[in-house]
Amino acid sequence: MALTNNKLPIFVLWVVVAVAADAKIADFDEYLQKKAAESYEQSLNAFNPNPEDLTDDFNQLVGKTLASENNGTRRNLINEDGCKATNPIDRCWRCDVNWAKNRKKLAECAAGFGYKTTGGKDGRYYIVTDPSDDNVEEPRPGTLRHAVIQKRPLWIVFAHSMVITLRQELILTSNKTIDGRGVLVHIANGAGITLQFVQNVIIHNIWIHNIVPASGGMIRDAADHCGLRTQSDGDALTVFSSNNVWIDHVSLSKATDGLIDVIEGSTAVTISNCKFNHHNDVMLLGAHEESSKDAIMQVTVAFNRFGIGLIQRMPRVRWGFVHVVNNDYSHWELYAIGGSAHPTIISQGNRFRASNYRYTKEVTKRDYAEESEWKNWQWRSEGDLFTNGAYFRESGPPLKHAKSPLTGENLIKFRPGTFVGRLTRTAGALRCRPGRYC
């Protein structure tokens, strides 16, 4: 299939018709059909045909950051000035004591496949003052739901700490940043967040937990459109047929379904500096065995902590290309990284600490395929650290560090797994205070 910038592939017409089945859309009207077609075309444009090149560049960036620490910068930044940023994404913004006045500096800091994401950088600030969510058809100004449906770029911040209990799934429009720095923002005890048919979204520094299914009904998904939705699944955060998405410093736990899903032809996504606890199906990348449109999916999973009470899917991948770099995995109960439908998974510089149960030592799991099939899937491990009996079963051809999807700014260059404790020590939502290093 040829990917072009000026012509929509023929099979996109099929995508527009078929996508409604899994999109929780009860009425797939002309407005949504147009959004679906436009979003998928933009995802095709965001797809990098050489992803290995991107991972190489990411690795170089990490190396430079750690080298600066070892040459004395670490002593000056951490011990004397108080800046605790130790990975290249954090170093980009956290060592500015005036971060609260320079919030949009964050838009320059994305790395990995989502490196082009700038969110609401080109828009005005929107201050959320009201934590309520009592009207999903006509949201009240000052609420988070009113902010995210506006059809213009916005940088969304919060006037004070709050717990937002969503009555129905929160459906975002394009070109938005949700920035919870400086206060404590919890999305909890209700529905989750949905990015569907959108582009250029940053979700940063919030807590998302105790997410449950919502009944569905008429929900406003844009200032000029209200659509009929079916019951939601209870996912904490869903990226559906969207591109250029960056999820950073988010703490996630306890949802009815998954914590993060990236599905249905989504691509150019980075999930970084997040903390995951107390959940079964943690992260699903690629929706179904038959969803070949996920072949364009490219996701970077970097500097995250997969911690207490996790069972599986960190991530589980179908079809696409995933770079798993410098994450900390501790005591999974079934497996850490799995997949089916011949995905490519490049694991670099992660730390894998197996549980004491002897049947869960293997990091990897390949579902629904015989070894004669999966032995050709490219699942490679470089620089990973394995403890307490953990091991990674490789397959497919070795990674060639030449022209591939992992070059340029798409790549986060890994450091050996022994560095992971330093690189991930502040994963999750941060308790930032204005006037101090975050």
UniProtKB/TrEMBL annotation:
Note on how the cofactor is bound: Binds 1 Ca(2+) ion. Required for its activity.
GO molecular function, one term: pectate lyase activity
Pathway: Glycan metabolism; pectin degradation; 2-dehydro-3-deoxy-D-gluconate from pectin: step 2/5
UniProt keyword list: Calcium, Glycoprotein, Lyase, Metal-binding, Signal
Keyword check for RNA-binding: no
Reactions listed under catalytic activity: Eliminative cleavage of (1->4)-alpha-D-galacturonan to give oligosaccharides with 4-deoxy-alpha-D-galact-4-enuronosyl groups at their non-reducing ends
Residues covered by the Pectate lyase domain: 161-358
UniProt-listed Enzyme Commission number(s): 4.2.2.2
Cofactor(s) demanded: Ca(2+)
Secretion signal, residue range per the UniProt entry: 1-23
Family the entry assigns: Belongs to the polysaccharide lyase 1 family.
Name the record gives this protein: Pectate lyase
Species in which this protein is naturally found: Perilla frutescens var. hirtella
Lineage, highest ranks first: Eukaryota, Viridiplantae, Streptophyta, Embryophyta, Tracheophyta
